[in-house]
Amino acid sequence: MVKFYQTGDFRAGLFYLVVGIVAMSIGRNYTMGTADDMGSGYFPFLLSLILIAIGLASVTRSILGKGLPAEQMHLRAMTLIAAATLAFAMTITSVGAVIALPILTLLSASASRNFVFGWKSVAAALALSLFCVIVFIKALGLSIPVTGWMLDSYL
Amino acid sequence: MQTLADILTGFQTALGLWNLLYCLVGVLLGTAIGVLPGLGPTATISMLLPLTFGLPPETALIMLAGIYYGAQYGGSTTAILINLPGESSSVVTALDGYRMAQNGEAGKALATAAIASFVAGTVATVVIAFFSPPLSEFALRFGPPEYFSLVVLGLVASVVLASGSLLHAFGMIVFGLLLGMIGSDVNSGALRYTFGILHLADGINFVILAMGIFGLGEIFHNLDEESDRRISLAKIKSLLLSREDIKQVSAPILRGTALGSLLGVLPGGGAMLASFASYALEKKVSSRPERFGHGAIEGVASPEAANNAGAQTSFIPMLTLGIPSNPVMALMIGAMIMQGIQPGPGILEHQPKLFWGLIASMWVGNLMLLILNLPLIGMWVRMTTIPYRVLFPCIVVFCVIGAYSINNSMYDIYLLALFGVVGYCLRSLGCEPAPLLLGFILGPMLEENLRRSMLMFKGDPTIFITRPISGALLLIGAVVMVSIVFPFLRKTREEVFKGDG
């Protein structure tokens, strides 16, 4: 038996409610204006109102009917890959693509259950990083630092 | 005559050396991602968008379009050979195509699919060339109320496209519209929902949103059910069709093309809907419907024609009205805006090179696909053996590089990760995020036209119904809504989406 609070309807409904209420309360500070001369707050207010209504409908439906249970989320892969991207953001300017890219690759690859750390995975990460540096930075000219300021001071 | 001259201009543009080259790159990449499961055109186009900012607009759009229709070809190749539809629109092709392959007719099925796609692509190109100019002209008469209603219609119709619950599809649209409000208000310059972060003053970049939700979010989802695929490859004997085969498939190809062209134009339509609908149609008109599902050649010909035709005619509303009918078209509109081109009916007049060049390139691209695809089949099939554990880190890296290159800002990478998580959460709750992207792109347009209409008509909301064109558009929207809620049609809609993973 699926309890109503385990359903996707209920949780999604809560999500809409939270977003709607937050959007509305932040939007209170914006100029409302009138229908024939709308301020910057008018349309967001309407949207928040609609989203709250959808949220209420979704929660109500979950309590009344038999909804489907929300899918089980697996947090491991998500956390590892999110962490990998954050690590890239934090290292790119200091140590540059030559170090940030292999870290990004290896860390995100480890999200797979079939991942084995070893010389093969390191070599693959280095190859991918090299490919990216040559194609994206050298050939296509994206302005991404190859070596960051920290490495530059040693080179 | 004018049309002929315009088409000639188009071919002059499309056959330029660089455009030809980028078209080739586009269709090859498209076929590749069509072959690879777990990587769709939406994610790919958003990853590659930042790379196209330096190109001339027509070249950029020619390549991006090539990715989209190339993916339709690639998806069907693997559907037939290994029962693995790389794209959702080729799910139907796998039904009879894989059976044909098992019966030793793999080559016949592949050739049918390629010819059907090419015929459909050619017809659809002509359809676009002839129907876009009058539609553009018509749309030039639209005032703000008409545009408002048109956007509403586009959003309502996109619900048809979303699988799963209607309520959540609307929830996603409104959430997307709200995300579109982030940044400075065009009229007053007031900052909205920036949370005190200066970086958000320009709003969220649509590429980041799309990459987060469709790139990273998909990966999180796919890693849940990661498994190693075992592949048994069908042997390809002859790629030639006999005269009898051609006779058998020509009517289904034409029917599929017609149905696909029609469904592609409708807002909310596109390749997937077209292929499902045409399969159902073929089964209905066939004198021996029991053969379907057991290797009926019509079951390959018609949906393949339909999905390619639908993929192409879905450019019509995008090019003439500035209204995207699916997430890929939403990205195209975003690409135009970033190139400094105002999407809408003015494109035909102000950007004839872009408009006709893009259309001509579609035919050129289809020709390339026909010529290249059959000889390269071995390579495409080998690509499917790339395990997902190798593929997904590459996608992550390309997404991150793409995100960073837009502004060289680490905020964009934070946002990328955030939207990946949000997309994954929403999907696990049964909320399909495709309408979110449409809402996000159309949000500012919707608000702008609402405000202008109300300013023009002194705050009287009834004008949306009393002005004839606007009223008609809203009426169509209402009919679409009713037709989805209506139980019989609703059931078919669910059936259509049952096979779509």
Concise account of the structure shown:
The complex is a heterodimer of chains A (155) and B (501). By secondary structure, chain A is mainly alpha-helical. In chain A, 66% of the residues lie in helices and 3% in strands.
What does this molecule look like?
The complex is a heterodimer of chains A (155) and B (501). Chain A is built from six helices and two strands, in the order αββααααα. The longest helix of chain A is centred in the middle third of the chain and has 23 residues, at 42-64. Chain A is mainly α. A two-stranded antiparallel ribbon of chain A has the order 1-2. Chain A has helices at 8-27, 42-64, 75-95, 97-109, 119-139, 149-152, and strands at residues 33-34, 37-38. Chain B has 501 residues and is mainly alpha-helical. Chain B has one domain. Chain B has helices at residues 2-14, 17-35, 41-52, 57-82, 91-102, 106-139, 144-161, 166-181, 206-224, 243-265, 271-285, 298-313, 315-321, 327-338, 346-350, 352-373, 377-383, 388-407, 410-428, 434-456, 463-466, 468-485, 487-498; strands at residues 183-184, 191-192. In chain B, strands 1-2 form a two-stranded antiparallel sheet. In chain B, β1 (183-184) and β2 (191-192) form a beta hairpin. In chain B, α7 (144-161) runs parallel beside α22 and α9 (206-224) packs antiparallel against α18 (388-407).
